[in-house]
Write a structure and sequence with these properties.
Layout: E1 22-25, H1 32-45, E2 49-54, H2 60-73, E3 77-83, H3 86-96, E4 99-103, E5 112-119, H4 127-139, E6 153-155, H5 160-168, E7 180-184, H6 194-200, E8 204-207, H7 229-238, E9 242-246, E10 253-256, H8 265-279, E11 283-287, H9 292-300, E12 304-308, H10 312-324, E13 329-333, E14 339-340, H11 350-364, H12 368-373, E15 379-386, H13 390-400, E16 405-407, E17 412-416, E18 419-425, E19 431-438, H14 441-459
Parallel strand pairs: 2-3, 2-4, 3-6, 7-8, 7-9, 11-12, 11-13
Antiparallel strand pairs: 1-5, 4-5, 9-10, 13-14, 15-19, 16-17, 17-18, 18-19
Helix pairs in contact: 1-2, 1-4, 3-5, 5-6, 8-9, 13-14
The protein binds magnesium ion.
Length: about 450
Amino acid sequence: MAEGFNMTSKRHKKRLFGTNGVRGIVGSDMNPELVYFIGAALGTLRKGSIAVGRDTRTSGETLIHALKAGLLATGCDVTDCGVLPTPALQYLIKEDFDGGAMITASHNPPEYNGVKIIEADGTEMGDDETIELEQHIFNRSFDLQPWDHVGQDASAPDIIKRYISAVVRQFPPDIGKGMLVVVDPGSGPACRTTPEILKRLGCRVMTVNGIMDGHFPNRMPEPTPEGLAALSALVVSSRAAFGVAHDGDADRAVFVDENGDYIEENKEFAIVAQHVCQRQKGVIVTPVSTSQIVEAVASSEGCSVVYTKVGSIYVARTMHSLIKQGDNVVFGGEGNGGLIFPDHQFCRDGGMTAASMVAILAATGDRLSDLVKRLPKRFMIKEKQKTLHAQKMMAKIEQSFTKDQIDRTDGLKITRGSTWALIRASGTEPLIRIIVESEKRTDAEVFFKEISGIISQESGK
Ligand code: MG
């Protein structure tokens, strides 16, 4: 969320941009003026050929013009790829451009919009570069060009086909032959990609919310189990193999099985991880917040897990650096349906995830519900707890668990036997996020009560 637009900031910390770009409500925090500044700052830092795109939000057209104005004014040549998923733009940039930016607010409601900055390798801009970009915005220091050096604007509405073909090429021809799949792109940009990808893999495809519409008339851009009732109903009535739904910019994919039952995203991650690990031995990268189910299936297939801070950019960059060190990184992602396939590209890709599920069912011959049932059992509690002194509270919690194993990759991860807890102070709100997971429900509940008790007791002082 854009946290006020203070031009005099000198703090060396990201202020406008969060973990996945800058976002805000259109007409207040998020407006063409801010997006022009972002475009001009990006054009000042990154010269050359820049690709831009947007999701289906009603404000997207206005904001992309502002973004392009900033880029062109600072001398960049701009290719407008139109409406497309974030991973499609990321793939195109990795292949052909010097950088780019996506106008999207991902899973946020329709009144939001935002900007994600993408580097030449297709990954989102890292923290240090983002701080530098913000400094240019706060100081309004832009490398504006004279009349004979402003950039050229080109439009490439069909360039999206290259992304679709790139995903299809990752799989054997006709791997989905005879399989019926229902796709819910949620009126977002995946209307242009996922149904086509699955058809090209040989599937028969039906859609719900398959017409692009920035008002999101039938469900919000966040694919929640409640929002996917129409998808589930159509999967059951059409006897489809599964249903797949995307968030507002289709970097994530979530699934319902053949019975229309929603698959919790950590289980989705584990099913895909298991399939990958059965074929390639190496390392899986994921944040410390991911369920232990993923590590359990990975280690049973002879693979290992490397944990990162929470945020897909940390996963992608860790995958990159491990590969540079010579590690065989086979897969990565988050427990929210954002999966990264390194043979394809180093970012979350919802279309690629949907196609992978086709390949998994084709290879195993199993029903999706059976794959879910066979996963190791874990019980997870996720809660937020209000407190006015989140940082002080973190120190207090740390002191209370000195006998347990503590990891400080992100917040505090406390492990006690087969139970673990992740405790993180929110950077923007007065609250602490708690995740507890165990093989037994009672163990998770007891550990959760212990942590929550410390917070309530201290907050009451
Ligand atoms: Mg997203």
